[in-house]
Amino acid sequence: MRHFLLIPGCLAVGLTLSACAEKGGDTVERAFQDVNVIDETDLNDVMLTVADPNEAVDYFARAIKTKPEKIELHRGLAKSLVRAKRNTEAVGAWSKVVEMPGTKDDDKVDFADALIRNGDWERAKKTLDAVPPTHETFKRYRLEAMVADANREWKRADSFYETAVGLTTRPAGVLNNWGYSKLTRGDFNDAERLFGDAIRRDSTLFTAKNNLILARGAQRNYSLPVIPMDQSERAQLLHTLALSAIKQGDVNTGKGLLREAISTHPQHFEEAVRSLRALEAS
User: Fold this and answer.
1) From CA 58, how far away is CA 64, in angstroms rounded?
2) Which of 1, 117, 176, 228 is exposed most, by the fewest CB atoms within 10 A?
C-alpha cells in the first residue's frame, strides 16, 4: 500500500518540477532575448563606426528584411550609405527614415546633410527650415551655414558659422569652411585669420594650411607663415604659393618658389617639376 501511496506524491512532485522547468525555460528564453537585443545594439554600433561602410550597408539591408518596422535599422542603413559615399542611395534611405514613426529632428538634419552631399541644395534648405528652431546642434548650424553660403547670404552664413563654432569642442573644420567662404568673397584678411584659427585648433589639418597660403598669395604675400609643417608639407605649400604668384602675374617670384619647393621636397616632386618646365619653356 505504501508503494501505491507514493505514486500520487511522485506525480505531484513531477508536475511541480515540470512547471518549474517550464518557468525556468521561459526565464532563460527571455534572458537570451535580452542578450540578443544587447548584442544587436552593440553590433549596430560596430557597423556604424569601425566596419567597412559597404559591409555595413549589406548588414543593415539584410536586417531590414527581417525587421522592416525598426527605425534604428533604417537609420543605420542611411548612415552607412553616407559613409560609403553612395549619396543618391543615402538620400532615398533618409527620406524613408524621416517618414517613419519615431523619427527625430536629428534625422531631418542628417537628411539635409545627405541632400547637400548629393548637390540638392534647395531641398536641403527646405528640410532644415522644417527643423524647429529649438533644435540647436552643431551639425544643424554647420549645415545652415553651408546652405546660406551656397545662396550667397553672407550675413546669415557668418551668423550660423559663429554659432556652430561655439557648439563644438573641435571647431577646426568649421573654421576652415568659414575661412573658405571668406576667401571666395574676396575678404582675404578675415579668411587668413580664420584659417590660422583652424590650424591652431588642429595642426594636422593640411587643407586649412593650403587655404591659408591661398589667402596670403591673393594679397601678394609670398612668404610662408609660421605654422607647424613637415618637410613634405612645406614643399607642397611652396608649390601652392608659387602657383598663386604666377596667377597674380609675378612669374619670376613663382619660378623661385617652384625651385625652392623642388629642393625642399624629401622625394622627387614631379608636379612642381612639370610646372617649372612649362614656365621655362614658355
Assistant:
1) 10
2) 1
